[in-house]
């Protein structure tokens, strides 16, 4: 059996305990500071108005002088939840579009870690939001949670199409107005050129009428018809 010199190992063990304790303390302080910084970061998205409306309808407080809160029809609550899902679809599309760009910029060092932390927090919040919407939909109507986002996606796509058509119609109206002004400008310029041309022709004609006519008296037609020239 080997004899262990505990006195000789006491100093390395104490050093190891101090090192591990320092590492654990630093890790806790670092994580706490990062959590505080992450909490103070600006959110990726603004306030979720549709979610707030749905929660307000779901938890209405009784009016003054009344013991019970007003009864909200289920159709209104379902419509509010569907609008909330439509807004979630819009935010999911934005996250998917920005994820690759943010990752590339982070690898290049063009953006800091704060932006990436904001993005990751927005992703987690959206995951929790989707689960919450599915649970609420199943609570209102059994099985609705499986198809609510499909319906919301169709509504969001139709809204994008309507917005695009409105932009095209607005641009068409602007283009039509521009062409009308352009045609009027070209027409006025053309009429002005025609007037100048007509006035130039009239001046030339008037000038030709006012010029004297020279007649050569030596020509046979200039001699009187009753007299013959003598040789």
Query: What is the number of helices?
Result: 5
Strand content: under 5%
Cα Rg: 45 Å
**Oligomer class:** single chain
Stretches with pLDDT under 50, minimum 5 residues: 221-231
Give a quick account of the main beta sheet: strands, pairing sense, barrel closure.
none
Distance between the termini: 174 Å
Shape: flat
**Total beta-strand segments:** 0
Residue share in helix = over 70%
Q: What would a concise description of this structure say?
A:
74% of the residues lie in helices and 0% in strands.
Describe the model:
With 231 residues, the protein is an all-alpha fold. It contains 5 helices and no strands. The longest helix has 63 residues, at 148-210. The chain is flat and about 130 Å long. Residues 216-231 have a biased composition (Polar residues). Keywords: Membrane, Transmembrane, Transmembrane helix. The chain crosses the membrane at residues 6-26. Residues 189-231 are annotated as: Disordered.
């Amino acid at each position: 059996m080997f004899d262990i010199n505990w006195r000789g190992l006491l100093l390395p063990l104490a050093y190891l305990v101090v090192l591990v304790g320092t590492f654990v303390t630093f890790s806790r302080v670092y994580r706490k500071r990062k959590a505080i910084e992450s909490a103070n970061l600006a959110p990726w998205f603004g306030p979720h108005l549709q979610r707030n409306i749905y929660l307000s309808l779901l938890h209405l407080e009784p009016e003054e002088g009344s013991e019970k809160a007003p009864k909200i029809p289920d159709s209104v609550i379902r419509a509010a939840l569907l609008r909330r899902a439509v807004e979630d679809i819009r935010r999911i599309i934005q996250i998917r579009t920005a994820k690759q760009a943010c990752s590339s910029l982070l690898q290049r060092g063009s953006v800091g870690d704060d932006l990436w932390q904001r993005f990751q927090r927005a992703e987690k919040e959206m995951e929790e939001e989707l689960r919450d919407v599915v649970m609420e939909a199943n609570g209102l109507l059994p099985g609705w949670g499986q198809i609510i986002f499909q319906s919301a996606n169709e509504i969001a796509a139709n809204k994008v199409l309507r917005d695009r058509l409105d932009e095209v119609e607005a641009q068409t109206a602007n283009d039509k107005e521009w062409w009308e002004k352009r045609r009027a400008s070209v027409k006025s310029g053309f009429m002005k050129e025609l007037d100048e041309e007509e006035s130039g022709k009239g001046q030339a004609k008037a000038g030709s009428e006012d010029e004297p006519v020279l007649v050569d008296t030596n020509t046979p037609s200039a001699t009187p018809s009753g007299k013959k020239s003598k040789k």
